[in-house]
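ESCALATION

Customer reports they have been waiting on this structure for their group meeting. Please prioritize. Original submission:
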Amino acid sequence: MINIKECDDYEAAKKLILDYSKIKGAEACFVSLDKELSDLKGFYEGGALLLGYEDTKPIATIAIRKIDDNTAEAKRLYIDPDFRGNGYARYMLGAMLDKCRELEYKEVRFTTKPEVMSIGYALYRKMGFEELENNQGTVLMRMRLS
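Update from on-call: job pushed to the front of the queue and completed.
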């Protein structure tokens, strides 16, 4: 079972985000990666960085970045490949949504590339995210929280 908590191990978070950045086809999602990794705590100020653990091993990440007082952007949903297929992405998304509500956001958005991340895209749709736009294969999605 996965245990999800706010990040207390930034080195583990960096490793997971770097692993994610190496997924073929996902390169465009990491335009400001150096800036992000140099100050994870500051980069997600007003939001949160969540880590998922199996026992004591960090295996998953998801982040919330403040866009404005009402809107957050979800980023960096990643599950270590050795732990996929256990439903952990759904738990990570649920924890992210709960945290967004706790932070009093009214809407959460994120971008994804369905061609690269088809399983994730299907999960987002199943959980109630709606597609706002598709710009050359990069899809902007949102969920209203209130």
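Sent to customer with the following note: The mean pLDDT is 91.
Escalation resolved.
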